[in-house]
Amino acid sequence: DGGITQSPKYLFRKEGQNVTLSCEQNLNHDAMYWYRQDPGQGLRLIYYSQIVNDFQKGDIAEGYSVSREKKESFPLTVTSAQKNPTAFYLCASKPSRGSYEQYFGPGTRLTVT
Amino acid sequence: AQSVTQPDIHITVSEGASLELRCNYSYGATPYLFWYVQSPGQGLQLLLKYFSGDTLVQGIKGFEAEFKRSQSSFNLRKPSVHWSDAAEYFCAVGVHTNTGNQFYFGTGTSLTVIP
Q: Percentage of chain A surpassing pLDDT 90?
């Protein structure tokens, strides 16, 4: 089955530690996205990548970093510089730069204490 | 700037009643329009989309939406709600920019279904 995998489903970290969230897709999509979701705030774009080895900052990139070394993988690192990292993180992809519809993974809930 | 407004933060309906979730957008041209549904703790699933043509579009799970250019709206409807429809619903707009096609989400409407 084609789709987007995010692991783990739940992640717990101590404050001050960096943590990396995994996102893998086997849809052969060019573009991939990371969103953060907080109650009552909808989805906010963190980073996106239209093609391998290239990525752009979204609306709330501070305290996050990404890499896109392979087409199917777009990991997100939440660094200790992120002031309020506890949230639900969603990864998405779409076929190409010119397409619109995005396909979403199941999400990772990160809790930092 | 582009924006998507979902004016209802939370809606409660009785099972079997009709449903309408509102969505308004701000964009110079006709955008591409989407509705997604999110069950608790899950990712987003596409319900339906509008690109062009017939302004009434049918989606999965018995949902439909109507694009009204004059009102800049894309409201989601369902004639008879089922308890399993309880979820968060997001309207989204796809627009063309110089850096590629971008997506903008509304803040969501939470639907509660009572027996």
A: 83
pLDDT at residue B1 in the model: 66
Q: For residues A69 and A67, what is the distance between their CA atoms, to the nearest angstrom?
A: 6
Nearest to B96 by CA among B44, B5, B36, B27: B27
Q: Evaluate if residue A97 carries a pLDDT over 80.
A: no
Q: Which of B5, B88, B90, B105 to mutate against chain A (most A CBs within 10 Å)?
A: B105
In the predicted model, what is the mean pLDDT of residues A61-86?
Answer: 95
What single-letter DSSP state applies at residue B70? Answer: G
Q: What are A's interface residues with B at a Cβ cutoff of 8 A?
A: 4, 6, 31, 33, 40-43, 45, 50, 56, 88, 90, 92, 97-107, 109
Contact A40 B9 (CB under 8 A): yes
> How near does any CA of chain A get to the CA of B10, in Å?
10
CB contact under 8 A, B100 and A98: yes
